[in-house]
């Protein structure tokens, strides 16, 4: 954890502890994969990884960031406790299981109890343990469902957030609702379906093993029975770390490298600017937390597959094979929106996705998306596949919304449709003995 | 119709119980000895998690309940089959679902007594066509063919199956372990077929079965309540609350003396019912804690 990041409460002491622990671990012995992973999990490994040559340029804002080799996240433990929740600055694992819940209880004390139980279970699961004490009693259903027994923790992270609906009349929390935190406005082209929209609580579970991730969601849902019900879920994947040892930028289902330009998660200053809500942002309970946007974006793969390579590249403004901006050679070359061809036409078309998404490059967000495939659309017989777009930002109204508004004229819209949407205020991290959400509940 | 699972019976015929199950007898003996202790513990509010609890009353209480339900089941089945044989279509339709409720409350008993469940409660395709008889065969005739014609023999057979069930009821011995799991099994019945509308595929009277299964589970809970109270008061209270929530939700679907048709439920309704059921079944599945020494 860097000193720059150490100014905000409530995590000062925690950060100090981490410093001690980290430097102990770092200098006493050669660093192991697991150590690196632990550091990365609490967002504290920026300088370290930078100096190992795996990080990118330490500059504020979005920059091309080479991804650290994926096997860093391989099989180890990502610390559950820390100043920030794991699963945000954590380099994306191979799989996601996302779940939105609706609360069914009527008192805030019961909500608190649920988060306490969830915290306990999450701490155990992320360290690879079994939930509960009754796993060998023949008279009772085992307290852990068991399918992750003996499996390595697989970089499991569990990230909790609450939706705007939590702040309605039910729990007396309306005065605590962040001013600009609300369901997203309708964007042009939206075809949102209720079955993939909203939720009082959102949980992003990521791991390098889908069974480990599913086990976590399943057990959290089980613990919630009688207190909260599942509202919607979506699983997602990237290419796995086994298939890409080099840890290159993963490709989405349109065949393009996705995630090239993203804030440097290892630079605390950037993260404080772009991702972590700050103590003076007006919402004390969110200091050190982050706002999550989830969009279930269906890709019309059949249509995309019949479009020419030239059209495909013009859609994004990047080359498919290299990932380089059109007219450039390397994936990480700077995007020059002013570059023209010999006829004076922009190399990156005016309606290209990267041009519109970038805008004047003053606004950034941390994208942490996964591909999804959910079988067939039974009415059309086509694949229901696409992108589970997930982004983290300090303020949705200032970051995601203006970007998504600009995307109204995106050429990409010919090939995609947004059919699910939710936003969650993800709490700051928790220290041992505390519980997720203890700053609010 | 029960999804047959020979490993999970609530009752075993007395003869079998006496013949084979030394373990169980020991348990019961221990329970009996500790009986007074448990009762005292329940009265004073001190929770003694260590005292083995006495389930003798619960077990005899449940046997009595089973017999009462079965007696009533015979009376109502007789009215139903009479209507079928008299060609009184409307009366037969009206009696069909309420009659079945007596059976649904105690369904695990029939399962433990051999072929009764397939004979009384099989759905089409659960058994070979030639063997298909019982309530659902008549249901198909009443609602799909809209007639009682050709059902007289099936009706007679149903009545004699129900009478035979009643006769065997005398011999069952309630087993404490199985009593504990039986409540959850009744709810599992609901989530596997009633909540999906698959049980009553012609009459769409699934909610009657739903309610009856929940009532049957609640009876077991009530019988175990003192033991549960002594062992884990928080769990006992939680189950009680969740039963109330389930009953409140089901009450929304009352219509006259009965319940609305499954086809009147929206997707949101069935989802809410199913999730309330899961919410109830989860703590209910922890009742086995009373069997720990
Ligand atoms: C199916 C939907 C989408 C697909 C397939 C997609 C794909 C891509 C690709 C291939 C790139 C270029 C490589 C990179 O820099 O990562 C990119 C860049 C980007 N996308 Fe998307 N995207 C989608 C939706 C969105 C949405 C909904 C947003 C936010 C509202 C968004 C924001 C961005 C941003 C900020 C960049 C970086 C632009 C820059 O160079 O500064 N994308 N996207």
From TrEMBL, chain A:
Catalytic activity: heme b + 2 H(+) = protoporphyrin IX + Fe(2+)
Annotated ranges, domain Dyp-type peroxidase N-terminal: 85-238
EC number: 1.11.1.-
Polar residues: bias regions: 1-11
GO molecular function, one term: peroxidase activity
Span of domain Dyp-type peroxidase C-terminal: 249-430
UniProt cofactor(s): heme b
One GO cellular component term: cytosol
Coiled-coil region list: none
SUPFAM superfamilies assigned: Dimeric alpha+beta barrel (SSF54909)
NCBIfam families per UniProt: Dyp_perox_fam (TIGR01413), TAT_signal_seq (TIGR01409), tat_substr_1 (TIGR01412)
Name recorded for this polypeptide: Deferrochelatase
Source species of the chain: Paenibacillus phyllosphaerae
Lineage: Bacteria, Bacillati, Bacillota, Bacilli, Bacillales
Automatic annotation (TrEMBL), chain B:
A family per Pfam: Peptidase_M75
Gene Ontology CC terms, in alphabetical order: cell envelope
Protein name, per record: Iron uptake system component EfeO
Residue ranges annotated for the Imelysin-like domain, each copy included: 70-287
InterPro entries for this protein: EfeM/EfeO_iron_uptake, Imelysin-like, Imelysin-like_EfeO/Algp7, Imelysin_sf, Iron_uptake_EfeM/EfeO
Organism: Paenibacillus phyllosphaerae
Family affiliation: Belongs to the EfeM/EfeO family.
Keywords: Signal
Subcellular location: Cell envelope
Signal peptide span: 1-19
Principal place of residence: other
């Amino acid at each position: 954890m860097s000193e720059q990041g150490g100014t905000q409460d409530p995590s000062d002491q925690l950060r100090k502890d981490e410093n001690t622990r980290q430097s102990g671990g770092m200098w006493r012995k050669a660093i192991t994969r697991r150590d690196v992973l632990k550091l990365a999990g609490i967002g504290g490994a920026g300088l370290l990884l930078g100096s190992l040559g795996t990080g990118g340029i330490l500059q504020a804002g979005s920059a091309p960031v080479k991804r650290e080799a994926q096997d860093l996240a391989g099989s180890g433990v990502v610390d559950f406790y820390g100043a920030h929740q794991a699963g945000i600055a954590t380099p994306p694992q191979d799989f996601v299981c996302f779940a939105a819940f609706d609360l069914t209880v009527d008192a805030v004390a019961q909500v608190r109890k649920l988060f306490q139980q969830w915290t306990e279970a999450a701490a155990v699961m992320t360290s690879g343990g079994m939930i509960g004490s009754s796993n060998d009693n023949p008279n009772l259903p085992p307290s852990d469902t068991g399918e992750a027994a003996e499996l390595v923790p697989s970089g499991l992270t569990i990230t909790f957030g609450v939706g705007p609906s939590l702040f309605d009349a039910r729990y007396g929390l309306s005065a605590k609702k962040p001013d600009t935190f609300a369901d997203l406005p309708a964007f042009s082209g939206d075809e949102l379906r209720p079955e993939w929209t909203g939720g009082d609580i959102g949980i992003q579970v990521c791991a390098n093993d889908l069974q480990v991730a599913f086990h976590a969601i399943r057990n959290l849902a089980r613990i919630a029975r009688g207190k909260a019900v599942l509202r919607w879920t979506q699983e997602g994947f990237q290419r796995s770390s086994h298939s890409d040892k080099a840890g290159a930028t993963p490709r989405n289902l349109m065949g393009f490298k996705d995630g090239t330009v993203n804030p440097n998660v290892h630079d605390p200053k950037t993260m404080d600017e772009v991702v972590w809500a700050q103590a003076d942002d007006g919402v004390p309970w969110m200091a050190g937390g982050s706002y999550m946007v989830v969009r279930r974006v269906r890709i019309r793969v059949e249509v995309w597959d019949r479009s020419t390579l030239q059209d495909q590249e013009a859609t994004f403004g990047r080359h498919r094979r290299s990932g380089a901006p059109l007219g450039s050679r390397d994936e990480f070359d700077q995007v020059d929106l002013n570059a023209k061809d010999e006829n004076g036409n922009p190399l990156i078309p005016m309606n290209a996705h990267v041009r519109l998404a970038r805008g004047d490059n003053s606004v950034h967000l941390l994208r942490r998306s996964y591909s999804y495939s959910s079988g067939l659309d039974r009415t059309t017989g086509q694949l229901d596949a696409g992108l589970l777009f997930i982004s983290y930002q300090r303020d949705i109204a200032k970051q995601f919304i203006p970007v998504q508004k600009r995307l109204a004229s995106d050429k990409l819209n010919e090939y995609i449709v947004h059919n699910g949407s939710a936003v969650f205020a993800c709490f700051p991290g928790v220290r041992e003995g505390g519980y997720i959400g203890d700053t609010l509940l | 119709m029960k999804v047959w699972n020979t490993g999970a019976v609530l009752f075993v015929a007395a003869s079998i119980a006496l013949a084979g199950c030394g373990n169980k007898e020991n348990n019961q003996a221990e329970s009996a000895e500790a009986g007074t202790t448990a009762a005292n513990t329940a009265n004073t509010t001190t929770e003694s998690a260590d005292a083995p609890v006495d389930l003798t009353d619960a077990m005899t209480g449940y046997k009595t309940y089973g017999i009462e339900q079965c007696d009533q089941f015979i009376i109502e089945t007789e009215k139903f089959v009479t209507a079928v044989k008299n060609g009184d279509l409307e009366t037969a339709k009206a009696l069909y679902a309420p009659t079945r409720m007596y059976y649904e409350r105690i369904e695990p008993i029939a399962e433990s007594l051999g072929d009764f469940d397939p004979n009384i409660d099989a759905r089409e395709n659960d058994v070979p066509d030639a063997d298909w008889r019982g309530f659902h065969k008549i249901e198909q005739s009443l609602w799909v063919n809209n007639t009682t014609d050709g059902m007289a023999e099936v009706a007679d057979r149903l009545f004699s199956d129900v009478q035979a069930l009643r006769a065997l009821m005398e011999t069952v011995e309630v087993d404490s372990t199985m009593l504990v799991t039986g409540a959850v099994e009744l709810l599992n019945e609901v989530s596997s077929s009633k909540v999906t509308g698959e049980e009553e595929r012609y009459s769409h009277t699934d909610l009657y079965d739903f309610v009856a299964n929940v009532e049957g589970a609640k009876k077991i809970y009530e019988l175990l309540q003192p033991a549960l109270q002594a062992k884990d008061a928080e769990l006992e209270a939680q189950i009680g609350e969740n039963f109330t929530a389930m009953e409140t939700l089901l009450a929304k679907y009352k219509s006259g003396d009965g319940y609305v048709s499954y086809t009147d439920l929206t997707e949101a309704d069935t989802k809410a019912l199913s999730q309330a059921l899961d919410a109830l079944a989860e703590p209910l599945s922890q009742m086995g804690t009373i069997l720990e020494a």
